[in-house]
């Protein structure tokens, strides 16, 4: 594959930036007649992020914006990203539901107040034109761990490999530098999980809990989520999973975002996880984790949003 971003081209949205300490995730649908306002807000998003973040240069404020398949036609028409389609529900040993979502905002920073301020301003500008379907405030947890106690995102590519895995290249030149975002929200049965011995938890995950060392554990979460290409090489995505929860409500979860050059790779992972296959799956972690949302978005290159013609 050719590199998605040669030197000197417009930078992509902050998909491949290092993980942030805090995030707010917003998923919304566009109300009838709200398209013009949504286009205006998307076109001015980069400037809004700069304005909110400018007084706090060390805060690292950023925002990734994605658009769903049905909303794309309403907002932009043709051309369309080559592989954009609605999230495909999976029903089998486990259920991956498809839920409503036209817009996706992944707001991230080193400070909670910056994420809150940007989310509040976005919702204010879009008031009366969207219906917020999900709002989740997420956080980093100890040393990059999820609420189940295991390190998350170990296999993420870094540097140029991250861009190659997450950003569209010459295969769809009109949308070069964009990305597909597959988004799911998981709730965990922490009581059932903690009732397992640590060794049993490690067999489910495929890694040691304390040191994060890889185990030889066929059928584990790690094993099921390893997808090989025709040449035998591992197919990579960029995972952006963060914990969230409300202990007083018994809610403990993971907000999962897979950024990918093609949605085919994370979709293959999901089929193996939820449906199983002749040589793997389903994922044993799904005995303790339940998907409650499922959406797919395309993250346009910034140049696309900043140069939108009049509707």
Q: What this model shows, in words?
A:
It is a single chain. It contains 10 helices and 12 strands. It has helices at 35-43, 45-53, 69-75, 112-126, 160-166, 190-194, 198-205, 221-224, 264-274, 302-306; strands at residues 22-30, 62-68, 90-91, 95-96, 103-109, 130-139, 179-188, 238-239, 242-246, 251-260, 289-291, 295-299. The two termini are 35 Å apart.
Question: How do you describe this structure in short?
Answer:
By secondary structure, the chain is an alpha+beta fold. It is 26% helix and 23% strand. The N terminus is likely disordered.
Task: List the defining traits of the structure above.
single chain, 311 residues, alpha+beta, ten-stranded antiparallel β-sheet, 26% helix
Total E-strand runs? 12
Radius of gyration: 19 Å
How much helix is in the residues?
A: 25-40%
Contiguous low-pLDDT stretches (5 residues minimum) are 1-10
How far apart the termini lie comes to 35 Å
Query: In one word, what is the shape?
Result: globular
Helical stretch count? 10
Strand content: 15-25%
Name the average pLDDT.
94
Could you describe the largest sheet, including whether it forms a barrel?
A: 10 strands, antiparallel
Counting helices, strands and paired strands, the structural category is alpha+beta
**H/E element order:** EHHEHEEEHEHEHHHEEEHEEH
